[in-house]
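Reviewer 2 asked us to include a model.

Predict the structure of this chain.
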Amino acid sequence: MILFLSDLHLSFDKPQITRHFIYFLQNKARRAKAIYILGDLFDAWVGDDDFTSPNAQIRRELKQLTDSGVKIYFQRGNRDFLIGQRFANETGVILLDDYAVIDLEGEQTLLTHGDLLCSDDLPYQAFREKSRTLEWQQNVLSKPLWLRLIAARWYRIRSFFHKQKKSEYVMDVNQTTVENVMKQYDCTRLIHGHTHRPALHEFMLNGQKAQRFVLSDWNNDGGAVLSFEDKK
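Predicted model (C-alpha cells):
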C-alpha cells in the first residue's frame, strides 16, 4: 500500500488535526510500504531548530514509523519549505525535489506540492523564486528563533488577507502549465496538493489519457489519504 497526503498545516493552535495525524501514523500508516507527504505538513516552519509544539512530537512519531521500516518521502510545500537535512536525519524521512517521478502501478507518476503549477499567481511566484535562494534562507535562519516565530505568525495573517483579494482562477493551477510539466517529465499521471480542491481530473495529453489527482487538505474532522495498492 502506497499512501499520499498533503496540506495538514499542523500548528499549535490546531491540536485536533495533530491528533488525527498521530492516529494515522500509529495505525493505517503502519501497514503501508511507503508514504509520500507532498508539502505543507506544517502551517509554518521557521527552521529545524524549532521544537515548539507540535513539532517535537511529530518528529518522534515520524521517527518511530521510519524505524519500523516504513519509507516516508517528503516534499516541501510553500509553508514548510525551510525544512532541511537536520529534520530529515532526525525523523528518517527522505527529502524529495520540487518535482519527483516514481513508478506507481507500472505508470510513471509525477509528484509535486502544487504551488509551482499556479503560474497565474505572479506575485507569489516572484516571492517563491526569491525565498528559495540560499542567500534569502541563510538570512532568515540567522535570526533568533523567537523572532522567526513572530515573523511567521505575521506572515500567516498577511497571507490570509492577501488570499481574500485573489480570484479563484489565479489561486488554482494553470492547465497549460500542468500539461507542459507532465510532458517535460514524460508522465501521464500527476499527484499534487496545495489548492485544497480534492478531485480527479482526466484529460488527453499527447493523444494519451492523463490523470491529475488533487490531494485533500486536513481539518478538525481529519483528512483524506490517497491510496494505491503495491502490486510488486
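The first strand starts at residue 2 and ends at 5. The domain at 2-228 is CATH 3.60.21.10 (Purple Acid Phosphatase; chain A, domain 2). We have added this to the supplementary material.
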